[in-house]
Structure prediction request, 321 residues.
Amino acid sequence: MPAKPRLLITRKLTDAVLKRAARDYDVMINAEDRVFSTDELIAKCQDFDAVLPCHSEHFTADVIAALPDRLKIIANHSVGVDHVDLAAAKDAGVVVTNTPDVLSDATAEIAMLCMLGAARRGAEGDAMVRAGKWDFWSPAFMVGRQVTGKRFGVLGMGRVGQVAAERARGFGMTVHYHNRKPLPDHLAKGAVFHDSIEGLFANSDVLSLHCPATKDTTGIINKDTLALLPDRAILVNTARGNLVKEDDLVTALESGKLFAAGLDVFCEEPGGNPKISGLKNVFLLPHIGSATEETRDAMGFRALDNLDAYFNDREPGDRVA
Ligand code: DGY
Prediction:
C-alpha cells in the first residue's frame, strides 16, 4: 500500500473532520491551536506533502518560496484566500483551493445578526441589562431603525451575497447590488443591479459587504464612498476588515452620517479596533461568520475533498491557483 500523504493541519478542526483526515492522511495537528509565527509556519511545513490552513496562516510570497519541493497543495479551510499570495503559489506550482458554498448560509445569518444588532441597538441594550443599569423605560427609550421596507445593498452578489439578499427579503427589504456583471434573472430574483458603486451606495439604507479582499477592494469603504450613502445608513461587514478604512468609518459613526455599523471582521484580527469598540452605535462580533457546528464540518470536508482529488490525480473542485 502506498504511504499516506503527509498533511499538516494548522488549527483545531472538528472531530469528524480530523477523524476523516487521519483515516486518509498521515496527519499532524496543531494541538495548542495557536497561530504559528511565520518562521514556525515555514519550519512546520518542511516535512509535509500538503497543508490545510485557515485564514489565520499567511502564505506570503516569502513563505511560499520557503516551502519544500514536496509540498504542492495548500487546501484552505476558508472561502477567502487573501491570506495566500496566489500569484506566488502559481509561479511555484503550488495548487491552492478554498471552501466556497458551504459557509454561505452561516455567513448570511451573521450578516442578518449584524444588521439587526446595529439597527436595533442590540449591543447597547444587552450591555445595559447585563450591567444591571436598566432602570428606565419609555416609548422614547432605545429607539432604533426598522429594516422592514428598507433597501438592502449588497456589494458583491456572489454566493454569500445572494443568500444574504434572500434573508433580507424575508425582512421585507428590497435588494440592490453591484457586481462586475448583472446576475441572470433566476439568481437576481428581482434585485436591482447597479453598474457602479456610486449607484449602489446611493440606494442602500443598509450596505452589506460580500466581496473578496483584493487590491481593488481594499479600502473601498472610505470617507468618499461613505458620503455616497443615504444619511443614517447602516454598514454591515462580514467579509474582510481591510475593505473598510476604519478611521473613516469611526468619523462617519461619530458624526451620525451612519446610524450604526454591524461588524464581524476588522483590519486587526484577533483584537479588533479600540476606536470602534469605544462607540455605542456598533454591534461587534469576533469573525464568527462561518462558526457553526454544521459549517465547520462542511468546510473541513470540502478541504479534504480537494486534497483527495489532488492526491488521486483529479482536478480539485475548488482550485483557485
Ligand atoms: C472564510 O472562510 O473566509 C471565513 O472568513 C473564515 O475563514
